Amino acid sequence: MKPGLGTQLRHLLELLDGAVSDVYEKEGLAYRPRYTPVMRALIAREPSTVSHIAEAAGITQPAVTQTVALMVKEGLVSVRPEPGDKRQRRVQLTDAGREMLPRLQACWNATAGAAAELDAELPTPLSLTLEKAIAALETRPFGVRIAEARARLPVPAAPMPTVGKKTPTKPEATRRRSTPKPKGR
């Protein structure tokens, strides 16, 4: 059986993120791959709001909020309320986060080199395929595509019975059970 698209994507992400995590560990860094988009956004503009990081990194605000919370626990970033707007929060690197940057940059350069090598081995570069897939899904979301595909399928005549469970018929369901006779009479 051929694995589905979701299974393949999860497996691909496990292969990529697992290898990158190993590189950070071997480098002695307490760092997760998911921190990288936030770190890069902060390198470009610091301090930054969660909204700006999400926009710059191309990820959702909830994802940034969750990632920033993890990074605060690791001591890599600090968060303070925005002076003019208490609903906004300013995120900035801590000294520990800043000290880590040269080693992270070396890891990122090695990762970029490995990604370029992988792209060169494929008939169509993975980075280009992913870029095109993301653009296509932003134009017409996957949920819309699923709904359209479902609408093209024939409508089943009746619900399928559950395998392994017996559905009682009307007489069986309403029949009274007899009480057992006492023994010895």
Automatic annotation (TrEMBL):
<keyword id="KW-0805">Transcription regulation</keyword>
<dbReference type="InterPro" id="IPR039422">
    <property type="entry name" value="MarR/SlyA-like"/>
</dbReference>
<protein>
    <submittedName>
        <fullName>MarR family transcriptional regulator</fullName>
    </submittedName>
</protein>
<keyword id="KW-0804">Transcription</keyword>
<dbReference type="InterPro" id="IPR036388">
    <property type="entry name" value="WH-like_DNA-bd_sf"/>
</dbReference>
<dbReference type="InterPro" id="IPR036390">
    <property type="entry name" value="WH_DNA-bd_sf"/>
</dbReference>
<feature type="compositionally biased region" description="Basic residues">
    <location>
        <begin position="176"/>
        <end position="185"/>
    </location>
</feature>
<dbReference type="InterPro" id="IPR000835">
    <property type="entry name" value="HTH_MarR-typ"/>
</dbReference>
<dbReference type="GO" id="GO:0006950">
    <property type="term" value="P:response to stress"/>
</dbReference>
<feature type="region of interest" description="Disordered">
    <location>
        <begin position="153"/>
        <end position="185"/>
    </location>
</feature>
<dbReference type="GO" id="GO:0003700">
    <property type="term" value="F:DNA-binding transcription factor activity"/>
</dbReference>
<dbReference type="GO" id="GO:0003677">
    <property type="term" value="F:DNA binding"/>
</dbReference>
<keyword id="KW-0238">DNA-binding</keyword>
<feature type="domain" description="HTH marR-type">
    <location>
        <begin position="2"/>
        <end position="139"/>
    </location>
</feature>
<dbReference type="Pfam" id="PF12802">
    <property type="entry name" value="MarR_2"/>
</dbReference>
<dbReference type="InterPro" id="IPR011991">
    <property type="entry name" value="ArsR-like_HTH"/>
</dbReference>
